[in-house]
Amino acid sequence: xxxxxxxxxxxxxxxxxxxxxxxxxxxxxxxxxxxxxxxxxxxxxxxxxxxxxxxxxxxxxxxxxxxxxxxxxxxxxxxxxxxxxxxxxxxxxxxxxxxxxxxxxxxxxxxxxxxxxxxxxxxxxxxxxxxxxxxxxxxxxxxxxxxxxxxxxxxxxxxxxxxxxxxxxxxxxxxxxxxxxxxxxxxxxxxxxxxxxxxxxxxxxxxxxxxxxxxxxxxxxxxxxxxxxxxxxxxxxxxxxxxxxxxxxxxxxxxxxxxxxxxxxxxxxxxxxxxxxxxxxxxxx
Length: 285
Fold this sequence. Notes:
- By secondary structure, the chain is mainly alpha-helical.
- The protein folds into two domains: 5-136, no CATH class; 141-280, no CATH class.
- Helices cover 70% and strands 3% of the residues.
- The chain contains ten helices and three strands; from the N terminus they run αααααααβββααα.
């Protein structure tokens, strides 16, 4: 089929392109500032957000030959989505509810794709557009609500480590008393960073694998328990280091604290690969 995409950059359409880009920058510039603030914070759960647009762009770039063969048409549904996204963004600005604007940004991009390129092409790039949602931070209140039980379960698992080593301790919530010291499992050890990152990677795995839908669902189901187990292991190691070598050795500013987080992430990534390779089994659909 004749390539119709270049027709969109005709001189007659330059005003439309310029208007959409100008509206995008002008309307969502405060949202970009907020996203940068959420990504760059010291205890940010969404520092991976910087990478998400580049991943989506790369996925679309990989389809470039297929996209050239698709018929391009305009859809008024896309224009409706654009207007709706801008209204939601306006409500977010007025109400100072920034996370709404983040999701509205993704809606605006999807609406522009549908309006300019039509249903055929937009459905083809549906997953890269969906993946942009992982760059949108959710409210801190929701994170805190989920993080509390996750941290509690991970702390309980970490205590199994000391039971096996026969090291005496007394636990009071997130406060752990050893013979000569007391430590508190803080918020940075709630495991939410790993959980959110693993879900983003999990959906990325699902995009590339070919298998039955229920097998793909298994991968998403195992992510929360695996995150809890790995976080429990990390807490146990940090508590052991702190109890043996002093609290500074495992403080949030120490190399071991950050390094243990990286090790946990790599272990989780390795588990996901093995699970996909030998359980999801992409060769047998």
